[in-house]
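hey all, quick one before standup. I had two proteins in the batch that finished overnight and I want to keep them in one place so we stop losing track of which output belongs to which input. First protein below, input sequence then C-alpha cells straight from the run.
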Amino acid sequence: MTFSGAGELFTIFFGLASALSWGAGDFCGGLTTRRAPVLSVLVIAQGSGLLLVMALALLWREPLPAASDLLWSAVGGLFGTIGLGALYRGLAVGRAGVVAPVSAVITAILPAVFGLLTEDWPGGMRLAGFGAALIGVWLVSASTETQATGNSGLGLAVVAGLGFGLFYIFLSQASASATFWPLAAARAASLPFVFIPALARRQLHSLDLKILPLALLTGLFDTGGNALFVLARQAGRLDVAAVLSSLYPASTILLSRLILNERISRRQSLGVLAALAAIVLIAA
C-alpha cells in the first residue's frame, strides 16, 4: 500500500489512530489481567492478532514480501515481546510512577532519533511538537502511586522502552509495499515466547472463558495499532509516526475516565493538554 500527495497528512492521521488503538488495547489488557494471568492473556491476544493479520493479508491478496522484510519484522516482534515482559515485570516489582513514564518516553525517543538521523531534519515547529509530545507522554504516564516492593524498576523500565522502541524501528524497515505479512511475521516470532512459559506454568489450563472476549478485544486493538503504525510509516516520516503513535497512554487514561470513571490527576490533565499541543505543532 503506497501513498502520495498528502502523505504527511496520512502520517499524522494514521499515527494518531495508532495511538488510539494501542491505548484501547492497553485499557482492555489492563481489565483482562485483573481477572486472568498475564501470560494467558498475552497468548490469546498474540494468537488472535496473528490469525487476524494473516486473514487480512489473504483477503487483500497482499503479495508475500522479501525474506529480508519478514526477518526485520520477526526481529522487531522479538524485541516487542522483550519490552512487554520487562514492562509487566517492572510494574510488578517497581513503582508505576517510574516504570510507566520512563518506558513510554524511551519508546518515543528511540525511533524519533533514528528517524532524525536517517531522514531530513524537520522544521522548528515540528521539533517543538516532538518536545511537547515527550512531555505529554511523561506526564500522562506518571502515577502518584509510591508503594513498591524491591527496587524502583528503573532498569526494567529502560529495557521495556528499548524493546518497544526497537520494535518500532525494525518494523519500519519492512517493505513499503507490505503491511500485513510483516505484522504476521512479528506475531509468529513473538508468540512462542509467551506460549511456552504460559504452558509451563499451566496458566492456560486455569483460564476462565468469561474473559475470552475481552482478551480477544485486546489482541484486536493491539494488532490494529501495529497496522496503523505501519501505514503511518509508509505514508511519511518515521519520527512523526513514532512520536504521534507514542501518545497511546493518553488514550488509555481517557478511556479509564470515560468507562471506569477513574480520576485524572492534575499532572495527567496537563499531559493530555501537552499531547494536544504536540499534535497541533506537528501538523502545522
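OK second protein, same deal, sequence then C-alpha cells:
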Amino acid sequence: MPRTWVTGLAVVLAWVEPMRADESPLDLAAKALDKQDYEAAVKHAAAAIKADPKNPKGPYLLGVAQLRLRKDAAAVDAFSEAIALDGKFAAAYDRRGDANLRLGKFKESAADFDKVIELEPKVTPEHWRRGIALYYAGRYEDGVKQFETHKTVNPQDVENAVWHYLCNNRVVGRDKARKELIEVTRDGRVPMAEVQKLFAGKLKPADVLAAADKTDAKTDAGTEARFYANLYVALYYEAEGDAAKVKEHLSTAVERHKIGHYMWDVGAAHLKAAAARK
C-alpha cells in the first residue's frame, strides 16, 4: 500500500509562519516535528496548549508527536482534544484513526476515517487505510467499496486487490471473490506477483515464501520481502479459516521482520487482537 494521505508534515508546517526570532511554542513544536525531535515537539506543543488553550493546533501537534513516539493512547487523547475544539478538523480525525487502529480499536478507527471522508470527500479514493480499518471492524461491504474506489487511483497494487478479496470473501464467499479478484500485473515489489497468484488460487503459500527468500535476508529489501510474504500468507490462511497458520505467519512477520511502514502496524494490531480473543 504505497499511497497514503496526510502522512507528511506539509499540513502542519503550512500553519506556522516563517521562522522568527520570537518563535511561538506552536512554531517550535512544528519545527521539532520537522526535525524528528519528537520529545521536544511534545514539550513545545504542551507549552502551546498552555499559551492558547482554545487553539486546536496545539493538541494536534502534541498528538502527532505522541503518535511518532508510539504513545498511541496519549495520541488519541490529544487528537480528541483538538477535535473537541474544532469538530471539522479532518487531519485530527485521520491521525486519531491511525492511533486507534494501532490500539486495536478498529470500530473507532473506522469511524474516525469515515469522518475524514465526510469532511474531505475528495480524499476518499486515496484512503486505503480506511478500507483496512473497515475490514477489521467487520464492515466488509463498505470495505469492498473502499478498495474498489482505491483502484481508480492505484490500479496496479496487489495489496489493494488482496484487501478487496479479504472483504469480498466475507460478503460473497471464496469462489465468487476469487473470480472478482482485481487483476494486477505490474506490481514489481517482491513477492507481490506471487501474492496475487496465491489469492487467485494459482500458487501455494510456500511459493510466496520461496519468492521472498530469494532476496538477501541481510538487506532492507530482504526484510521487507519476508515481512510482506508472511503477512499476506497469514491473511490468506485467515480467509481459509486456519487460525494456527495465521498466528504462525503473522508472528513471523511482526516479530522477526519489522519494517518502518504502516503495514507493520496493521500486522501488529492484528496479532494483538488475535491474542486478546483467546
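Flagging for whoever picks this up: Residues 3-19 have pLDDT under 50 and may be disordered. The CA atoms of residues 113 and 173 lie 26 Å apart.
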